[in-house]
Amino acid sequence: MVEYNKFGASAAARRVSDVTTEDLDLTDKEHCILCFNDMKYFALGKCNHKNVCHTCILRLRFIMKDMKCPICKTVSEEVLIAESESLNYEQFQKGEFKKKLLTDNEDAKIYYENAKVKAAGEYLRQLQCLVYKCNPSHQFSSQEALKSHLERDHQKTFCKICLKGRLVFIKEQRLYNINFLRAHIDHGDPGNEKQAEILPHPWCDFCEEYFFNDQQFYDHLSRQHLTCHLCPPNQYKNVYYSSYPSLENHFSKSHHLCPYENCKLKCYVAFRTSDELGAHVDIEHKASVRV
Ligand SMILES: [Zn+2]
Ligand SMILES: [Zn+2]
Ligand SMILES: [Zn+2]
Ligand SMILES: [Zn+2]
Ligand SMILES: [Zn+2]
Ligand SMILES: [Zn+2]
Ligand SMILES: [Zn+2]
């Protein structure tokens, strides 16, 4: 049994799920509503919202597999990345206009207004060295090749937990000096005006594994581990058991576990009081004997 209750506040970065239409300034077309960066190219879907930048929309599509507009949640199969502010979805869908557009090499449902915009869209997925001025024209063939270059030539590395759990392009992942990676894992990274804070990575004692953030950790706990339905929820909300045998052990120590073999096989047949167990035994296990 392990109690997990020392969770910090969630990261300062605005998550897509936190955005509600009421607190957004949709008249500001100069900044992306999700990342607050200057809007170079915007994404255009069915709903005609033009408040999300190409980086954010492509991150949603490629990394999170999310086709919804982050503002109104309208699903758009096709999306246009554009720079001309006067464009709208109806124009984009016109046969003649659409024919002239370029599509993404990986996803033919992503259209680009012109070659410059397409280059910006594809750049996000290219594997260049992340160290400033290090051979910017060279593209690595794989993430592994990029990693070995970073370790060998710069003594820098990615955090494996962030790579798995922080849903951004490789280009947006952070680099750590090999000697400071441990400090990042244990203490997280402070935020600044450019980067959101990263909290210390939560650790599952049962699986001996780190998770990127509280949300992913709680998902894991609720899917892989168990809680007791008999303990008062306000007091034991964050108490988890690795698997059923350890929860059963807890039932027999702290509650009233039905000792009959067929109930043990069913699992979870345990009661708060000995009276409740007595009533259960009378109905389930004694009745057939009496008949
Ligand atoms: Zn953005
Ligand atoms: Zn929308
Ligand atoms: Zn390099
Ligand atoms: Zn990390
Ligand atoms: Zn676990
Ligand atoms: Zn309990
Ligand atoms: Zn029973």
Summarize the structure.
This protein is of the alpha+beta class.
Question: Can you tell me the CATH class of the domain at 31-123?
Answer: Alpha Beta
Mean pLDDT across all residues, rounded?
A: 90
Q: Shape from CA axes?
A: elongated
Q: Specify the helix fraction band.
A: 25-40%
Count the strands?
12
CATH fold-type name of the domain at 31-123: Herpes Virus-1
Bound molecules: zinc ion
N-to-C span: 42 Å
Strand order of the largest sheet: 2-3-5-4
Order of helices and strands: EEHEHHEEHHEHEHEEHHEHEHEH
Radius of gyration: 27 Å
3D structure, described in words:
The protein has 291 residues and is of the alpha+beta class. It has helices at residues 54-62, 89-93, 95-100, 115-123, 143-154, 160-165, 181-187, 214-224, 233-236, 244-254, 261-266, 274-290, and strands at residues 2-3, 42-44, 79-82, 102-103, 110-112, 156-157, 176-177, 203-204, 209-210, 239-240, 256-257, 270-271. The strands form five sheets. It has a four-stranded mixed β-sheet. A hairpin with a 4-residue loop joins strand 8 and strand 9 (209-210). The chain starts with a strand and ends with a helix. The structure holds zinc ion (ZN) (7 copies). One zinc ion binds next to helix 1. GO terms for molecular function: ribosome binding; ubiquitin protein ligase activity; zinc ion binding.
